[in-house]
Queue: 2 jobs
Job 1
Amino acid sequence: MPNPTLPHSCILFIGHVSTDKIENINGTRTQPGGAALYAAIAAKALNARPAIVSAIGKDFPFKDSFLGLDSASVKTLNMPTARFHIRYNRRWEANYLQVNIGAGSKISSSMIPSRLLMPQNLVHLSPMKPTKVARIVENIRRRASKVKISMSTWIGYMKVARQRRLLAKLASQVDFFILNEFEAKALSQTDTLPFALERIKTRRLIVTMGKLGAIMSGPDIEPQMVPALSIPTGKVVDTTGAGDTWQGAFLASYHMTNDLLKSVTVASIISSIKCSQWGFKAIEGLNFKKPADVISYVLALKEGWMQKRITDFAKM
């Protein structure tokens, strides 16, 4: 349930919704995707009242993906939906064969309704061009100075010095800056993660490290590492959107508990569950009433009665 100290609060996710063609060792699938959609569905699994701002084309065939989300601000435009064609090798390294932003290029701050910028809300900006993100952050700060802002980005935006400088500036303006270890090193132009943690100035820096967990740092806390939990979800089927799922679950948990350590743990679990099936099939039907229920789910897995517990936590 939403944090009782934050009445009617929600988490707003701004970013791309796409049609993805995914190829990996388990086969080929065409499925809904986009960083904002993965993050919002992860937050929905934790009962966090997610809303989404995005733009799709009339050709988007997966509108059922928005069930349970506040999607009133997802605009349908007369242009193609964003499309990504991603091929993974056996080490789950991604090769983007097609990137077509399409309708996603029209996402703007003007699409954000004032009702979603209440002081108790949290806004997360999924990866978009840094110049666009800068305009959106400026607009939100002008309209709702007390809203907390989180953002993530993409290593492809860090190839040019001008964009790295803009991303570093944005990091100083938001409340949560979430990167993976490779993005952190690329942004700070170092091969050493401790140096990256020192160079990136933000209120809360969250650096994810896959199976190792995550590192948190900030002006008022020493860098601390939270190991990821390894849970028996079976083989990895599809890693697409795993990082975005992690971010959505982390933000939902933190928004409800204000507990950074618990939130990293919950995010690792939800992301692991997501990877056990194609797309977000493994998490879209889950309905944990509170983050602590995720821990109960892991205990159920340990005791060997997964099927019973997955039913307990599924929406009926």
Job 2
Amino acid sequence: MKDYPDDRQQCLEELIKTKHRRSELPGYIDRLISLYNKDGRFHHILPESIPSRQAVVDIIGKTLRIIYPGYFTSERLDDVNIQYYFGQKVTELFDALSEQITFAIRHDCLRFNKPCVHCEEKGQDIALEFIGAIPEIQMMLSKDVRAAYEGDPASCHFDEIIFCYPGLYAISVYRVAHWLHTHDVPLIPRIMTEYAHSFTGIDIHPGVEIGESFFIDHGTGVVIGETTIIGNRVRIYQGVTLGALSLSKEEVESLRRRKRHPTIEDDVIIYANATILGGNTVIGARSVIGGNVWLTESIPPDSEVFLKKQELIIKNKS
């Protein structure tokens, strides 16, 4: 070995020594392979492709660039290139969405031994139908944008709401995912809403039914469970939970497809950190639910529900 200064010589010796560690990897790999399917471990080592989480997240971006043209792109849009823009973006969305829907349907068919539904053709049919439904989704979201502007005096204009408000982002992803959920697309709607949850702190299950002009102010910590029904012009604030009552392990399976979450009627306002639980709980139209309220029973229309004012004790530090 060529002579080097002591510090460099030591570095080279360490490099040669650590290279031997790589030769130990095959033994670890053999152990991983021998155990991946043992003792209840989870894996997806199967011949069919599974939907790609990253591809589904990319589909969210592709869809929002069509629903809100000009907002989420670096391209300048005008009357000269708008036809080209929509042609390119819609085609990209169709190709990506139909592929992932096909993967999701095929995965369900093979993994759960379902009858063949011609997944490739069905994936393209659903993707094409979704493209046709975008104008309706876009109209619903335009009402959500207006509801945010009318409900929040801190909003300066519609552009700020579309660019900046996490509540609108979560609702936008929800409305896309809900359409796919109602058309029996497996797995993909939940990937979408859970991505929005991780991005915004707002958890909306794709199975929720939400009317028009919905506004979530601030939004962090909002949880809306699968079988919740929300009417028109409802406004909720951060930390609100629309959830299910606690269940025993034995009850979970029997309630898996039943209504477990509350119904919120039209024009209701629910303030921060309120918790409303139970499938039989109905909040009547035009009611106001105060902050930190805990409800497991129905409230008639035109009600106000607040906690009794607490006694504050203010003492001089000296």
